[in-house]
Amino acid sequence: MKITITDTETEFDNESAWNIIRTIISYPRSVIGLSTGRTTENMHRIVAKIFESHPFDVSNVTFLGLDEIANISRKYDVTCYTMLRKQMLNALKVKNKQFIILPSISKNYSDSCQLFDKEIEKRKGIDLIMLGLGENGHLGFNQPGTSFGQTTWLTNMDKRLELQIREKTGISSDTEIGGVTLGLKNIMHARKIILLAKGKNKADIVKKMLQGKVTEDIPASILQLHPNCEFLFDKDAAQKLSL
Ligand code: GLP
What whole-number distance in Å separates Cα of residue 79 and Cα of residue 118? Predict the structure, then answer.
């Protein structure tokens, strides 16, 4: 199991960005999974900045959004689609056909999830997922208690994130907000995963994920069983690990 610990947040952001660029340059037809949040935002912006000064070929890459907020329009900046577009994909001039993500609004989420899995199959699976980690161990929107066998699905959102979204968008509690996400089974099928965590608020869960038992109560603990998962932490997130 490869664990990289950086001294600073800036090194963490640069190192994670270079992982994406290295993959694109080595495998120009890659399918690359992306997550949104505080952990990955700078990484996306760094990839965009490097691309702008030293362009590399992304015309055959597929970018895949790992999860999406359900029941709110993409016109809101909080949707994963819009965040990924604005942080990185617009700068890389990624075409719509090169960016697959679950819809934020759908008449039938179950059909949308099946379609999404087919889109991934058509591209022969995911080469790399740059995976964020929730403070409670969630991956995507797979909250504690999610079955390890779960495939792409519509689920609940954790209350804290839901509150933040309502505050940012002004969407009232009359509209139910959920999350659509790759399931843990789909995530485990990726050929390579890089799990990213930075900040001291992630220190406890990083320890449980890597040095606790593999349990559905901590979805990210399943990564201990992945044959090609690397972990990238800054030193705050790694502070409780016994190495
Ligand atoms: C969110 C997203 C995940 C993300 C995680 C970490 O809820 N659904 O895809 O990786 O939480 O977020 P952050 O990086 O802001 O801590």
Answer: 22
Note the pLDDT tens digit of each residue in 120-175. Answer: 999 999 999 999 999 999 999 999 999 999 999 999 988 889 999 999 999 999 99
Task: Find all residues with CB under 8 Å of 97, minimum gap 6, and list them.
Answer: none
Q: How far is CA 85 from CA 74, 196, 225, in A?
A: 11, 20, 32
**What is the best residue among 13, 16, 34, 35 to mutate for testing ligand 1's pocket, by most ligand atoms within 8 Å of CB?**
35
Per-residue pLDDT reduced to its tens digit, 174-193:
999 999 999 999 999 999 99
Cα 27 to middle of ligand 1, angstroms: 26
The answer to whether residues 146 and 155 touch, using CB atoms and an 8 Å cutoff, is yes
Q: How far apart are the CA of 135 and the centre of ligand 1, in A? A: 8
Give the per-residue pLDDT at 162: 93
Nearest to 58 by CA among 86, 15, 95: 95
CA–CA gap between residue 52 and residue 82 (Å, rounded): 20
